[in-house]
Structures are given as C-alpha cells and as structure tokens.
C-alpha cells in the first residue's frame, strides 16, 4: 500500500494535491483496493459548486457504487475525462488518476498527512 | 384441490419433528395472536383441475372473440407464426427467474442479447435494454432519462396515444417533471407551435410515428427543431411499420421506444405486452432496467452477463434512475422469435400489407360516405367522419351484429380505423357493404 | 454456441404471409432506404437454435431453485393452458364492455379473493411487476396526503434490510428516503422508528416477514407509530407466501399492499417477466387507484375509473393473462390449499435450515418463515470461501443457487427459499450437496474458486463486460 508524502488525505479516502491555488482530488490506493475493479466513474461538470463532506460524484464496481466525497468547498475547474473511458487507471495508478481539479477554494476539511493517514487506514482493518 | 405440496401428511409430520417443532402451529410462534387470522379464508373450496378448466371455459364464454377486427389504437392483431408460440412455451424459458446466475442462464442471456441487437437494427439505435412493461411505460421511462438539472420540462405531442400520455403524466407527477402538450394540427404535431417553445428548460419532446391518428409525422423537421433547442427527441414507433418505414435512427432521434405487442403477442385484453427502449450510445448508462452484455469466461469462451448493473435499483437504491426490476423478458423473447422467423422480407411484407389494406379500406369507406378527417400520409390507421345522419355508435353496432369489430369511436362522429395483414380484401368489402346498408336504411 | 446472426445466409427463411390482395400503397419519402438487418435462417435451424438456448437455461422444471425472495414454486401447467385460450387471448382491450364480461369477471373475482387474503378492500391490477406496484402504492400515499392538504410530508421510511426497489420507488414518486437501521435481531428497531417518524413522514414501506425471513413481532407497534405520526403503512408483498391464509397485512395495520403474482400466486417468471404487481388498499384510499376497475352492475360488470385516480401506470388493465393464471391458481387451492401452501413453505424452510445446521451459520439462529439467510462471513475471513463460491459450486450439481449478497445487512449472505412445492428428498439432497461443498472447500479452499467446471460457460468476466460494454452484435464488415 502506497502513501505518498506530498499529498494530504481525507477520512473518506480521497487524496488532495496542492497545485498553486488549486487542488487535484483523487482516490487513494487504500480506497481503490477496497473498492475492487472499478468499471465507471460519475464526475461533476466544470463550474459545479462543491461542498466539503458532500458527494461530488461516485465510482462503480460491478456490484457496488461508492460516493466520492469532496474534501473542500470550491468550484470544479476541470475533470479528468480520460477516466470516463478508462476507469481502470484508478486501480492501476491511483495517485496519477486525479478525478477533478478544484478552484476558488474557500474552506477545507481537516486533512491528514501521509503518516496520519497510514495509521488511520491501519486502524480500519 | 390441493396446493401442489408433494410431501404427504406423514412426511410433513416427520419433517416438523426433525426440525424441532411439535406442531404446525408452533411454526408461527412469531406471529402474535392478535394479528393472526383465526378463521378460515372466505374463499370457495379448492377445485380439481378438471373443475377449474370448466369454470374458466364458462368464464371465457362471456367474452366475444371477433373474427373480423378493424380496431387498433395501441393494440394490434397480427399473424402470429406457429414457430413463435412453440419457442416461447419451452419450459426452461417459462419457469426461469431473471438470469442472475450467468453460468446456467446463457440461453436466456443470449436470447436477450439477440433481442437487443434486433431492436437496435429495427430502430437504427446503438443500444437497447432488455424491455420494460409496455410501450406507454417505455415512453414514461424515456422521458425520465432526459431530465437534467437545468432541463426539467418535457413536451409531448397532443397526437400521441392517450394511454401513453396518461402514463407519462403519472410518472411526471411522481418525479416532479413538468409536462406540456404541444397541439396538433390536421392530425399531426403543429410544427409552428413546437418551434415557438422556449429553449430554456427544454428536456425532450415525445412524438409517435405513426401517431395515434395513424398519420406520419415530419420527424426530420421535428428532430431539427428539438435539437436546435438543445432537447432530446424521443420517438415512439410501431415496430411493424419499421419493416418499410424510416427508423428513429434515420430521423436522428435520441431515444426510440414503442409497444412491441405487434411482434408476435396476442391481444390478450391488453397484456402482457412489451415495452422496447433503445438509444444512442451516449445515453446507454441512462437506460433503465436490465442490459445484457457480451464477455468471456475464464477459459476465454464467449458468454453473456447482466451488465452495467451499478445503475440499477438493487445497487443504487434511492439514487437509481428507475426502480424497474422484473420486466417482460418472455415477451422480449417472443418479439425476437417473431423477428427471426419473419426475417426482413417477412416483416416488410407484413408492413406493406398493413399499409396497403388500410389504404384500400380508407378508399372503400370514402365510397361509403365516410370521409377521412386528416390530409397527410398515414400508415395503417386513419380517422373518418361519419356520413350525415349516421353516428359512430350506429355504424359500430351494425358491424358488431355481423361479427365485425369496427374502428375505435373517438366521439359521436369520428372513428379511428385500423387494418393489418390479417384483414382480407373480401372482409374489407363486406365491412364497407354493411356500412352502406346502414347508410341506406 | 453461435448467435442467431451467425446462422443462415441471404435468402433463407420461409414466407409465412400471403401476397397482398390489394394494390400497394407507396410510403414515398417515409420509406426506409435499405431493408432491416434481421436473421435469414431456415425454420429448422431456428428451431434448433432455440432448443439449444433452452438447454442452456435453468427453470423450475430443470431442478431445485431455492432463490430467496423470489418464491420459485411450481407453476401448474393447467394455468398456462387456460391462459392460452382463444376466448382470452383474442380479446382486444378496447372492445365494447358487453363483449369482455369474461375478462372483467376474472379481474373482479381475482380482486375479491386477493382482498380477502390481504385484508384490503379494493385492488388494481394495472401494475405489471412488484416495483411497479410499489411506485403505484407510493403515488396513492402522495394522493392521500395531498387530498388532505398535508403536502409537507416528504419522507418515506425504509428499513436498511429492504429490497433496493423500495427506496428506488420512493425516489421515483418524489419522496426523500429515510433509511432505518435494523436492530440486531434483523427486525425494526422501535426506538429508531419513533425517532424517525414525525410530521414530515408520509409513510413506511415494510415487508413482513422481512428480508431475513423473520416475522416482525412488533408489527402492531410499528404500524401504530407511523399512524400516530400521520403516515401510512405500505406492505411489500414479496414475502406473502409465508403467511397467506395465516395472517393478513390489513390486520397488521397496513393501508396499502402490493402482491407479486409471479411469486406467491404461482405465475411463472418467464426469465424475468412478465409478472404482475397488483396494488390493494383500504377503502379510504380506493378512490385514488389507477386504471379502470370492474364494478358489478346488476348481472354484469362495467369498467369505472376511481373518482380521484392517480391516472395510469400502464396502458389498459395490466398483464391480464398473468392475472388469469393467478386466478386459476386461487381456484385450485381455495380456502384450504392457500394456508396449506403457506404452512408447507415455512416447514420446508425450517427443515432445510435444520439440515444445514452444524455446517452453515444461520444469520439469525431462530425459527424462520418461508426463507432464511446463512452467512459465510466467518469462512470468508478464515479461509477465503465466499457466498459466491458456494453459489457457483452448486451450479455443477444442477441446483440453482440461493440469492447472494442480499439482504445487505448480512455479510456474505445466501438467502434460501425452498417453497412448499419441493419434496423432502430434494431438500435433503440439496442440503447434503451444500454441506459437502463447504466441507471440501474448507479442506482445500483453493479449488472452490475455480468452480463451476461443467456448466456451458465458466465464471464470466463481469468487469470487462462493464468497462467496455458490448450490448449489441456487430455484423462483420462485408
């Protein structure tokens, strides 16, 4: 299981990468492993408002669907359209397969660093 | 007489004891005394198979089967090939549940995949689901597919079949979609009225080809107008007509729906029928209900499974786009068997005959003084107005006396007629003769 | 095997219709530019094709089918025969009333009998399936509150053990769904229900016996809590087979009921439908029912739309021939056979549960109704044997597996419903097979993941099917 040091993490297993004033959001290695083979991703549209703690979209495996929870209040700047045709990228390289880019962020959930998140995951099982 | 329970009383007693119960009553210990039905059901005693048969034969006699039918309006009498019935009455098909266990359900899954493919060929669409309840429910489900956050108004042509409109209305009342009727003009959708609608909130437009009055709509123009407004076009179509007429795909429709009953299903007092639904590829994930997909097993052998299930109610629950679970699978198989045995040539001949007989009927009725109400082209249905001094009930009663089920009375003076390949020239001539006689009397 | 599109050649097939005996009509600009692409296969090849498909299907006629929550009982053959009588199949739905009195009699009598069994006052047969009935029932709830000017009731309470159709139907009817967590006994947690029920509650959807196969003993308290809060109680009839003739939803405090005629009342399921999901209700709600109902009017029946009807949920009068089969079934069983069937359904389930004891862990270790749930949670943890593994292994033994992974409140669930029409030997044989499968898998866990070995295809790649959907045959390019 991989926990890159340069990222921050939410309790609902999203990762956040700061890029200037914007952030990228993705699903963690732990999340993709628990969800199994993903077959589809439902993403919001650019311009949609996000609220921290609320679902911004969802991911589907063959027999389940799981919400993706927004870690911030902000606005969707861009979505990773390549995932729509290749959701397996999330399974293959979760930290490259960003889901959305967020701009105009005005508040953020308390996020964990890599170390904290690793022990959080360890405590889950 | 009897409940088809195979175990003898003695066996039942032994099983009870083996499972740890002293009596049948103890099985129901969890049901509190105050909700138990502590009496016999007020029903008749059970009957033997022989008695049930004669009872239903008696009931059946209270129906009248018309040998000559000239009524459609949403339910059509067509020739049903012998092959169809013998195929779909195979016990393994009849007594199976939904194919959840793909490894032992390849027969059903493959048959649905074949059905989906035939519906796509027929409608000119990319993807089809495994069926819904009927044509009206298919229209209502299609409307729900088109709802988007900023587009929540659906427009429906006033020239669609009333039952379809009624079901769409009920579904819309449920999910809060606004429904607006677009008026008709001379039996077809008023294109000017359609064009004048606001773009804002325009989700989709539903129209039928042919429509309720049998008229053929200018679907190319309709598609242009609807797409210019950013909306989707849902085209309801008669599957037999597609043997010779342009398909929804040819017109650029986004979703094709229809009543599949003409494809091998008897009239049966309105059901079971078949709702078919097909769409452009982009809308695949919005289709409700079961969809069968092709894949391979662990040895690489081709096989079929229920796919895209994460859209559905058993996984998505309240977030599912539809609640449909059971559909009309055996009716879908009926349609596939019908299309397979008829083939393209047979379907075209059925469609040609329907259209030809309807036109012959219309000409002959015109001679008898029943003028057609509308001007434009039509397929196998059309509306006439009764000659002066005669009313719809008078004409229809006279026909019924001679064992003819005439067209559907729309009001006191207008009748919606239908002819199919089942109606012979002789029969049509007889019908017209009866009307002439009433007119003269 | 080949697809139908891979058989035959251009020009094959028999002409089944005569030449047209009147002049052709020209569709002009409406004509399609090329023929529809359909199979061109001789009738003999078609016949063999469908025979091969039938061999690759498993119906109740092929073997034991303990698919929980689906009530796969035997469907008497006589019912099929009666439903193919010309006197019923040849009737146009828009014929004059006088000429359809037989059909109306079937609907009216079937309504009377099913109302007696459920404790309801009237019933509409328009809904075509269970989920369709649920949607209809919820619209009745909406119409009721609306008629009282009580439109702030926006919430429907649904236990987390419910079928997915319940919350999906509630959402379709415009309601917000409140998921109610079940208690440790799998039943409704009364305190949680009291918390949830308030002036915003439109109603509760419940099945009793519930989805873990237990009768909720607190049922009168449950319906009272909802009624006291001003809501209505909706009964999901999926599990009616356990209690017909024994207890009635109407006496438990339910206001609306749907039945699955294709489960409880023996009409076969046809590989996914057509079913029939009639909705019954108490007299106070009858005026909202959909469609047209047959009213006795002297010695005949006439069709009437209830005065404040919610409209139509389907064209015409529902899946009429399915209703006809259920009616024939009711006549066959009568007042004696109906409770007898229910008692034996419960007996068979308890007997089968007792045969699995010591091998499989029951999710709730107490007597069940018509079905019970076992859990492989422990086996999954210790040896990696899942519910799906047991199910797939059963396929090689000609037994249709139980329902898997439902209800969601039980981990690694298998839900077993033998029904009353299975003989004792079948139950014993199936239990023996299941116990053996588990024992062998525990000795050698790796082998079970490879099963089945002898089915027409083996485990299929569902992930690939969903990622790159192929849902339509593509003809080879010419």
TrEMBL record, chain A:
Query: A Pfam family matched by this chain, by name?
Result: GCV_H
What does the record list as GO biological process? glycine decarboxylation via glycine cleavage system; protein lipoylation
Give the highest taxon in the source lineage: Bacteria
This protein's UniProt keywords: Lipoyl
Q: Among its keywords, does the record have Protein biosynthesis?
A: no
Ribonucleoprotein found in the keyword field: no
Domain Lipoyl-binding as annotated: residue spans: 22-103
Recite the UniProt cofactor note for this protein.
Answer: Binds 1 lipoyl cofactor covalently.
Q: Which PROSITE patterns match?
A: BIOTINYL_LIPOYL, LIPOYL
Which SUPFAM superfamilies does the entry link to? Single hybrid motif (SSF51230)
Q: Which cofactor does it need?
A: (R)-lipoate
Q: Per its database record, what is this protein's job?
A: The glycine cleavage system catalyzes the degradation of glycine. The H protein shuttles the methylamine group of glycine from the P protein to the T protein.
**Which NCBIfam families would you find in this protein's record?**
gcvH, PRK01202.1
Subunit and interaction comment: The glycine cleavage system is composed of four proteins: P, T, L and H.
**Protein family according to the UniProt entry:** Belongs to the GcvH family.
What is the official name of this protein in its record? Answer: Glycine cleavage system H protein
Which species does the entry assign this protein to? Cuneatibacter caecimuris
Automatic annotation (TrEMBL), chain B:
Can you give the residue ranges of the Glycine cleavage system P-protein N-terminal domain?
3-434
Under CDD domains, the record lists: GDC-P (cd00613)
Picking any one GO molecular function of the record gives: glycine dehydrogenase (decarboxylating) activity
Which GO biological process categories is it annotated with?
Answer: glycine decarboxylation via glycine cleavage system; nucleoside metabolic process
Q: Which Gene3D superfamilies match?
A: Aspartate Aminotransferase, domain 1, Type I PLP-dependent aspartate aminotransferase-like (Major domain)
Its keywords, alphabetically, are: Oxidoreductase
| Cited InterPro entries | GcvPA, GDC-P_N, GDC_P, PyrdxlP-dep_Trfase, PyrdxlP-dep_Trfase_major, PyrdxlP-dep_Trfase_small
Q: Which reaction does it catalyse?
A: N(6)-[(R)-lipoyl]-L-lysyl-[glycine-cleavage complex H protein] + glycine + H(+) = N(6)-[(R)-S(8)-aminomethyldihydrolipoyl]-L-lysyl-[glycine-cleavage complex H protein] + CO2
List the EC numbers from the record.
Answer: 1.4.4.2
User: Its quaternary structure?
Assistant: The glycine cleavage system is composed of four proteins: P, T, L and H. In this organism, the P 'protein' is a heterodimer of two subunits.
- Quote the function comment for this protein: The glycine cleavage system catalyzes the degradation of glycine. The P protein binds the alpha-amino group of glycine through its pyridoxal phosphate cofactor; CO(2) is released and the remaining methylamine moiety is then transferred to the lipoamide cofactor of the H protein.
Q: Which family does it belong to?
A: Belongs to the GcvP family. N-terminal subunit subfamily.
What is the name attached to this protein's record? Probable glycine dehydrogenase (decarboxylating) subunit 1
Automatic annotation (TrEMBL), chain C:
Q: Give the keywords, sorted.
A: Oxidoreductase, Pyridoxal phosphate
Q: Name one Pfam family in it.
A: GDC-P
What would be one Gene Ontology cellular-component term for the protein?
Answer: cytosol
Looking at the record, the residues that make up the Glycine cleavage system P-protein N-terminal domain are 34-292
Residues bearing the modification N6-(pyridoxal phosphate)lysine: 263
What cofactor is needed? Answer: pyridoxal 5'-phosphate
A single GO BP term for this record reads: glycine decarboxylation via glycine cleavage system
The reaction(s) catalysed by this protein are: N(6)-[(R)-lipoyl]-L-lysyl-[glycine-cleavage complex H protein] + glycine + H(+) = N(6)-[(R)-S(8)-aminomethyldihydrolipoyl]-L-lysyl-[glycine-cleavage complex H protein] + CO2
Highest taxon above the source species: Bacteria
Q: Tell me the GO molecular function terms.
A: glycine binding; glycine dehydrogenase (decarboxylating) activity; pyridoxal phosphate binding
Limits of the Glycine dehydrogenase C-terminal domain? 341-443
Question: Enzyme group, top EC level?
Answer: oxidoreductase
State its Enzyme Commission number(s): 1.4.4.2
HAMAP family recorded for this chain?
Answer: GcvPB
Q: What does this protein do?
A: The glycine cleavage system catalyzes the degradation of glycine. The P protein binds the alpha-amino group of glycine through its pyridoxal phosphate cofactor; CO(2) is released and the remaining methylamine moiety is then transferred to the lipoamide cofactor of the H protein.
Protein family (similarity comment): Belongs to the GcvP family. C-terminal subunit subfamily.
Q: What name has this protein been given in UniProt? A: Probable glycine dehydrogenase (decarboxylating) subunit 2
């Amino acid at each position: 299981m991989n926990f890159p040091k340069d990222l921050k993490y939410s309790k609902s297993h999203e990762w956040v990468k700061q890029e200037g004033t914007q952030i990228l959001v993705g699903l963690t290695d732990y999340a993709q492993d628990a969800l199994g083979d993903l077959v589809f991703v439902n993403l919001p549209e650019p311009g949609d408002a996000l609220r921290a703690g609320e679902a911004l979209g969802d991911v589907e495996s063959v027999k389940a669907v799981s919400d993706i929870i927004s870690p911030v209040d902000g606005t969707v700047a861009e979505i990773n359209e390549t995932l729509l045709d290749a959701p397996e990228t999330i399974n293959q390289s979760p930290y490259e397969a960003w889901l959305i880019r967020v701009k105009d962020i005005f508040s953020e959930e308390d996020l964990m660093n890599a170390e904290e998140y690793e022990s959080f995951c360890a405590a889950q099982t | 007489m009897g409940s088809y329970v195979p175990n003898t009383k003695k066996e039942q007693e032994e099983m009870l004891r083996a499972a740890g119960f002293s009596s049948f009553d103890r099985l129901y210990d969890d049901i509190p005394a105050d909700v138990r039905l502590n009496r016999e059901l007020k029903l008749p005693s059970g009957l033997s198979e022989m008695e049930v048969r004669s009872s239903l034969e008696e009931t059946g006699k209270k129906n009248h089967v018309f040998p000559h039918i000239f009524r459609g309006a949403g339910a059509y009498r067509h020739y049903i090939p012998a092959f169809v019935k013998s195929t779909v009455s195979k016990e393994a098909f009849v007594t199976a549940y939904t194919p959840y266990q793909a490894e032992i359900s390849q027969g059903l899954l493959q048959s649905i995949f074949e059905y989906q493919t035939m519906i796509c060929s027929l409608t000119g669409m990319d993807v089809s689901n495994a069926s819904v309840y009927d044509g009206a429910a298919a229209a209502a489900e299609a409307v729900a597919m088109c709802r988007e956050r900023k587009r929540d108004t659906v427009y429906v042509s006033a020239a669609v079949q009333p039952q379809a409109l009624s079901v769409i209305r009920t579904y819309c009342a449920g999910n809060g979609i606004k429904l607006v009727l677009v008026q008709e003009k001379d039996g077809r959708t008023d294109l000017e009225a359609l064009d004048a609608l606001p773009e804002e909130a325009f989700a989709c437009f539903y129209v039928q080809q042919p429509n309720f009055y049998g008229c053929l709509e200018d679907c190319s123009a309709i598609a242009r107008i609807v797409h210019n407004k950013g909306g989707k076009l849902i085209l309801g179509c008669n599957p037999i007509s597609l043997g010779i007429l342009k398909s929804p795909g040819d017109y650029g429709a986004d979703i094709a729906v229809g009543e599949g009953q003409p494809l091998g299903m008897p009239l049966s007092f309105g059901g079971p029928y078949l709702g078919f639904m097909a769409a452009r590829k982009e809308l695949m994930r919005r289709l409700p209900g079961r969809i069968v997909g092709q894949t391979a097993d662990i040895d690489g052998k081709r096989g079929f499974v229920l796919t895209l299930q994460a859209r559905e109610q058993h996984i998505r629950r309240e977030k599912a786009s539809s609640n449909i679970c059971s559909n009309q699978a055996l009716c879908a198989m009926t349609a596939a068997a019908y299309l397979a045995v008829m083939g393209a040539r047979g379907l075209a001949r059925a469609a040609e005959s329907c259209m030809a007989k309807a036109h012959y009927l219309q000409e002959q009725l015109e001679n008898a003084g029943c003028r057609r109400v509308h001007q434009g082209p039509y397929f196998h249905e059309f509306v006439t107005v009764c000659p002066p001094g005669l009313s719809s009930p008078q004409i229809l009663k006279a026909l019924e006396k001679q064992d003819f089920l005439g067209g559907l009375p729309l009001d006191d003076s207008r009748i919606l007629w239908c002819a199919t390949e089942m109606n012979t020239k002789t029969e049509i001539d007889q019908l017209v003769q009866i009307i002439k006689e009433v007119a003269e009397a | 095997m080949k697809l139908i599109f891979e058989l035959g050649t251009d020009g094959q097939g028999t002409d089944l219709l005569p030449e047209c005996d009147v002049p052709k009509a020209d569709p002009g600009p409406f004509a399609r530019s090329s023929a529809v692409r359909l199979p061109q296969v001789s009738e003999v090849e078609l016949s063999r094709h469908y025979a091969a498909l039938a061999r690759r299907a498993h119906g109740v006629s092929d073997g034991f089918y303990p698919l929980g929550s689906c009530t796969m009982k035997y469907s008497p053959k006589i019912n099929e025969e009666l439903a193919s009588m010309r006197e019923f199949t040849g009737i146009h739905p828009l014929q004059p009333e006088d000429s359809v009195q037989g059909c109306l009699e079937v609907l009216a009598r079937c309504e009377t009998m099913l109302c007696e069994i459920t404790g309801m006052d009237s019933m509409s047969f328009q809904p075509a399936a269970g989920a369709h009935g649920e949607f209809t029932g919820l619209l009745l709830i909406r119409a009721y509150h609306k008629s009282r000017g009580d439109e702030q009731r926006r919430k429907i309470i649904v236990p987390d053990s419910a079928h997915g159709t319940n919350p999906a139907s509630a959402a379709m009817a415009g309601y917000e769904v409140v998921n109610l967590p079940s208690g440790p006994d799998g039943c409704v947690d009364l305190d949680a229900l009291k918390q949830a029920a308030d002036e915003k509650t439109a109603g509760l959807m419940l099945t009793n016996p519930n989805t873990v196969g237990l009768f909720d003993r607190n049922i009168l308290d449950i319906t009272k809590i909802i009624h006291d809060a001003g809501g209505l109680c909706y009964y999901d009839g999926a599990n009616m087979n356990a209690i017909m003739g024994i207890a009635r939803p109407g006496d438990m405090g339910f206001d609306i009921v749907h039945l699955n005629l294709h489960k409880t009342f023996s009409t076969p399921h046809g590989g996914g439908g057509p079913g029939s999901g009639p909705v019954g209700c108490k007299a106070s709600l009858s005026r909202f029912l959909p469609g047209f109902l047959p009213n006795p009017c002297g010695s005949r029946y006439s069709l009437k739309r209830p005065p404040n009807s919610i409209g139509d949920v389907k064209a015409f009068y529902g899946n009429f021939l399915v209703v006809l089969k259920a009616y024939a079934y009711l006549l066959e069983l009568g007042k004696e056979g109906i409770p007898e069937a229910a008692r034996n359904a419960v007996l068979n389930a308890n007997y089968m549960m007792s045969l699995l004891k010591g091998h499989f862990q029951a999710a709730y270790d107490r007597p069940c109704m018509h079905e019970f749930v076992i859990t492989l949670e422990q086996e999954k943890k210790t040896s990696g044997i899942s519910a799906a593994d047991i199910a797939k292994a059963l396929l090689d033994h000609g037994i249709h597996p139980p329902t898997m992974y439902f209800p969601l409140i039980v981990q690694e669930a298998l839900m077993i419903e033998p029904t009353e029409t299975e003989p004792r030997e079948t139950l014993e044989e199936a239990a023996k097979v299941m116990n053996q499968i588990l024992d062998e898998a525990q000795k050698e866990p790796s082998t079970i993941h490879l099963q089945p070995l002898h089915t027409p295809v083996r485990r299929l790649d569902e992930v690939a099917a969903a990622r790159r959907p192929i849902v339509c045959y593509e003809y080879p390019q010419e």
